[in-house]
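explain this:
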Amino acid sequence: MQRNRASVGRRSTTVGQRISSLARTSLLAAAAVCALGASVPARADVAECERSYQLGRKDEAIRLCRRAAWQDNDFFAQVKLGDIYSAKRDDDKGYYDPVEAFVWYFLAGRNSAIFDHVHLDPAADAVVNKLVNADTDSRGIYRNLLQDERIDARNRITYIESCRGGDGFILLGQLHDPFIAQRHQGGQGAPLTGVTDQPFWRRPVGRGSGLLPPRSTPAPSPYPTSGGSSAYPGSSSQSRFGADFWGNKLCNNSEWLGWMTPSSSCSRYTTGEGTSSVFPTSIIESMVFYQLADRAGHPIAKIYIESLKNWPSDTGSDTKGQSPDVLAKAKSQRWLAPFEFYAAETRYRGETPSGLVHSDECSINAKRSQALALGERLIPQTIRRDLLQFLGFFRGDGGREMSRAISKYQDFLGDPQTGQFTPVQLTRLVQIGAVRGYARAQRVLGIMYVKGIGVVTDFVRAEKWLLAAAEQGDGEAMYALSEVYTQGADGVEKSEDRANRFRQGAASAGFQPVRSEFLRILETAPAPKADECKTRRCRRERERAQQQEANETEETN
């Protein structure tokens, strides 16, 4: 009866603990929702960007355009950023950055949002003009970039698209996909049953594609004319938009979207001096990004994965007989975005000659907002002060000096100087310290990734930063690594050998919890062999063990 009561009591305690844990989780989620308004930046559109730019508030305009181009994939904002960073106007020279200009022109040239305007030829022609100019400018810039700048550009594009979640990963997969043009152009070797000479899918680009009624004569321009001439210089209202005027322009000038037009000669591989080499084509790399899109919850990512299984593999002899999708799935579990935050590893401050920092505009969803709220609560003041001091912003004592240091740090980021951390600024403080090589910041950031504090839980990235701190002799980072390898995690294999090695390293580095653990192990170690007993205590332990063994033998007999 008492045993049953004890069992019921234990179950009640367990249930109570679960309820308490659930309540804490609910409260934390509510707090995250409340903090969402403070941590999520306001949405922006290209109209606000253009208005600020015309009024001369260019720093503000760039921030607004970056947010619209990044989070909303706004085609016009991307073109505007390319124009500013390439300094097409003399008064934009302070913002000149050829790598950044190429990044936004490149993304504009691959933005399918242009198809929102295909229902009206004049609108389509205006949009295609912008796209063609962006694509042409990106090729010219790319030809003049150094090799490390080209790698930098590819990494920036990868980071931007990875921030956009499933849609961004799909685009990255398409950029690596060696057969995407062939899949749109049947008759070029595509292994599709019944498809030999016509594309099985095509957006309604231009006329003559079979999706829009063909024209036998040019359509008149809807624009008003003056004196018999078109609103466009050098062209008549009757000839400006012919049977496939802007469709052919897209075909002949767009390296990426050209193969979506009716002409079979359109392909992003037709030009030898384009930017196709920015993302080398590979089935494995393409599948990795399609797998990442699937993990991000994209509803049709699996279809992209299946589409590559029917194509000849480009894998080498070191694949040990594994199929491309199996290899890609394993690689996707270990995949890391190129930066901790935008352009972190490629620029000391990631800024233009004007001093404006390239802002990171990754969107803040509910999961990230919850992590940021945790960071605001749990990152202690001592770490904040230490990191501000490491970066050279804190040089004294007292609350007033702390507020002044935060304001200096906010000015460094290009944010309003309030003297109070926002959740994003606080997390970024730790990230900047880690990127700059500060071992304590690297260890703290690694633990943050393990616990989901300030950043969304990511064990692969946690391993990266804990290893970086451990290489500098940080004992606590070594101990944290030993725990990760003992348990294993998503993307990190369980390994007792690694766990023991880092646990021993932590003890050698003087991390006390591990040193105490080793002392307890030594105290409870098995008795040494007879010829190794040199102390009275050892001999007594040996005699007791021998007597116990003799008693057990006698009982057995």
Residues 1-40, 187-239, 267-272 have pLDDT under 50 and may be disordered. Residues 225 and 353 are 45 Å apart (CA to CA). Residues 2-39 form the longest helix (38 residues). The two ends are 40 Å apart (CA to CA).
